[in-house]
Design a protein that fits this description.
Chain lengths: 111, 140
C-alpha cells in the first residue's frame, strides 16, 4: 500500500499511490492510515486523484479511518475520480465527508 | 451488425483474483459500453464477486463463472458459483445500512450498491449451484 504523506500547515495530506482501494487491500489501507494519522496535525486530507476504483470494502475502510481520527479531527477527501465518486454518491457518503473537487490550492506541493 | 459474442470468465473466489479478473475485463477491447456504464459494471461485479468470495466460500476459495452478454437494455451478467446458498434462498433486499453521525457504517453497502446499479435480478439455488442473473443498464 503506497501512501505518500506530507504535512502542510495544520494539515496532513496523504496521497494514495494506488489505483484501487478494494477488498484486496482495504485492510492494508486502513492499517497504513492508522499509522500515519498517529502524527500531529488537526486535519487529515486524503488525495484520491490516483484512485480509479473503490468498492464497498474500500469505502468501509475510509469510514473506519474517519472514525479512528476521533471527533476532534476532520477527514477530508479530494480528487474523487468518476467511479469513486459514484460509490460515495450512491451510498450518500458524499454527505458525510468534506469532499474537495481538487486538492485545495494551499495544499498543493510548491514548485 | 451482429451482436458481440458473450465474454465468459472463470474466476477463483479470492479478493486478489477478483481484482485481477475485473482489471482484465475492463481492459478488453470487446467490452461494449461507455465509460459511465463501465464504471457501474465494475462496481456491481466487484460487489457480487467479493460477496461470493466472502459468503459462498467462507472456508476455502471456490470457483466462479461469469458470463456477460450484451442485451437490449444493458449487459446481462450471469454469475455461477458452487458455494453456500444465500440465506433464505433469496438475494438480499439491499437496504442501506442505518446511518447516523454517531455511528457510521463501515459495511453493509455491498447489496445496496448491487440493487442500486442493477435491474432484473434473479437468483436460484439448484443442484448445489448458485445462479445469479442481473442486468447492468447501458444508461442510468
Amino acid at each position: 500500500m503506497n501512501l505518500y504523506a506530507r504535512e502542510l500547515a495544520d494539515t496532513l495530506v496523504v496521497e494514495v499511490g494506488e489505483d484501487r482501494i478494494d477488498a484486496a487491500c482495504a485492510i492494508q489501507f486502513k492499517d497504513a492510515m492508522r499509522e500515519l494519522a498517529g502524527r500531529a496535525g488537526t486535519r487529515v486530507l486524503i488525495d484520491m486523484s490516483r484512485v480509479r476504483f473503490l468498492d464497498s470494502s474500500g469505502l468501509g475502510a475510509v469510514v473506519a479511518v474517519m472514525k479512528l481520527l476521533g471527533p476532534d479531527r476532520r477527514l477530508e477527501l479530494a480528487g474523487l475520480t468518476p467511479a469513486v465518486d459514484k460509490v460515495f454518491r450512491l451510498t450518500r457518503m458524499d454527505s458525510v465527508f468534506l469532499i474537495h473537487p481538487d486538492l485545495p490550492a494551499g495544499l498543493r506541493e510548491a514548485g | 451488425m451482429s451482436d458481440p459474442a458473450p465474454i465468459c470468465l472463470r474466476i477463483t473466489a479470492t479478493p486478489v483474483e477478483v481484482r485481477a479478473a475485473l482489471t482484465g475485463l475492463m481492459a478488453r477491447p470487446d467490452l461494449t459500453g461507455d465509460s459511465d456504464f463501465r464504471q457501474r459494471l465494475e462496481i456491481a461485479l466487484a460487489e457480487i464477486l467479493n460477496n461470493i468470495a466472502e459468503h459462498a466460500y467462507p472456508a476455502a476459495p471456490g470457483r466462479i463463472g461469469l458470463c456477460l452478454s450484451p442485451g437490449a437494455t444493458g449487459m446481462i451478467c450471469q454469475v455461477i458459483d458452487y458455494g453456500l446458498p444465500m440465506p433464505g434462498l433469496a438475494a438480499p433486499a439491499g437496504h442501506p445500512p442505518p446511518m447516523t453521525e454517531a455511528n457510521l457504517p463501515e459495511g453493509g453497502f455491498g447489496w445496496f450498491l448491487i440493487r442500486s446499479l442493477c435491474a432484473g435480478l434473479t437468483y436460484r439455488h439448484r443442484n448445489g449451484q448458485n445462479d445469479l442473473t442481473l442486468i447492468v443498464p447501458w444508461h442510468q
